[in-house]
């Protein structure tokens, strides 16, 4: 069970963050506490004066990052969607290329999202619920880190890797990972989603041992009925 913050006490000398984990309260003493409560898009008056078409509070763009004003492109957080640094970079690159005559598009279905907590969380593509909502008949493969040799060796046995696969084609639609180095592991599945690779390919691909990446292989094997170490 993940810890839950209940309150922050301040006696003008130090801060005590009260957390609850498994029903037991504890305090974490620190000099400062960083509280993240969300972000809002920040559009300057100069930008708004251009008369750009808006999508709510975000600048509306087409698939080529073009705004409603000719020769004006927008990218990153100002266009809304997932407010991720790596996505903003990709959109900025696409916008620059398209401003120079290119026709680059972003594959938004293959954008990984990561949460750098302990343990880490990472995902890409469709969740099981999303896939079903879009009309797919899905198969799900899962592998727990507690059955992974590297995870046991480094004391990070909590977590799992899960893949969502289209039952008809065998193509990987998405994945979710909870556990150590999830933000590093998600790139393998991001490549699979980008290339529309089948789960069987990753299940049969030789992964180095012992590594956490074997959890991806095992999850794919589970999805196609070839699980060995689950």
Identify the notable features of this structure and list them briefly.
alpha+beta; Enolase-like, domain 1; 3-stranded antiparallel β-sheet; 7 helices; 3 domains; FAD/NAD(P)-binding domain; 5-stranded antiparallel β-sheet
Commentary on this structure:
With about 230 residues, this protein is α+β, with helices and mostly antiparallel strands. It folds into three domains: about 1-35, no CATH class; about 45-105, 3-Layer(bba) Sandwich (FAD/NAD(P)-binding domain); about 110-225, 2-Layer Sandwich (Enolase-like, domain 1). The chain is built from seven helices and ten strands. The chain has helices at about 45-50, 85-100, 130-135, 150-155, 180-195, 200-205, 215-225; strands spanning about 5-10, 15-20, 25-30, 55, 60, 115, 120-125, 140-145, 160-165, 170-180. Strands 6-7-10-9-8 form a five-stranded antiparallel β-sheet. A three-stranded antiparallel β-sheet has the order 1-2-3, with no helix packed on it. A hairpin with a 2-residue loop joins strand 2 and strand 3. The longest helix has 15 residues, at about 85-100.
């Amino acid at each position: 069970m993940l810890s839950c913050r209940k309150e922050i006490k301040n006696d003008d000398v130090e801060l005590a963050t009260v957390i609850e984990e498994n029903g037991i309260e504890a305090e974490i003493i620190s000099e400062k506490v960083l509280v993240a409560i969300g972000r809002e898009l920040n559009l300057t008056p100069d930008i708004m004066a251009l008369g750009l078409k808006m999508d709510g509070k975000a600048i509306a763009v087409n698939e080529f990052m073009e705004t409603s004003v000719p020769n004006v492109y927008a990218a990153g957080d100002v266009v809304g969607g997932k407010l991720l640094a790596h996505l903003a970079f990709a959109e900025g690159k696409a916008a620059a290329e398209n401003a120079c005559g290119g026709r680059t598009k972003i594959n938004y279905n293959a954008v990984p999202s990561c949460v750098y907590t302990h343990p880490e969380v990472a995902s890409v593509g469709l969740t099981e619920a999303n896939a079903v909502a879009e009309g797919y008949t899905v198969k799900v493969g899962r592998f727990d880190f507690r059955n992974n040799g590297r995870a046991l060796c480094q004391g990070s046995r909590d977590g799992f890797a899960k893949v969502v696969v289209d039952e008809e084609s065998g193509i990987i639609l998405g994945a979710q990972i909870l556990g150590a180095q999830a933000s590093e592991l998600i790139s393998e599945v991001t490549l699979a989603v980008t290339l529309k690779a089948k789960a069987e390919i990753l299940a049969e691909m030789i992964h180095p041992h012992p590594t956490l990446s074997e959890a991806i292989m095992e999850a794919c094997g589970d999805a196609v009925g070839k699980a060995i170490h689950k």
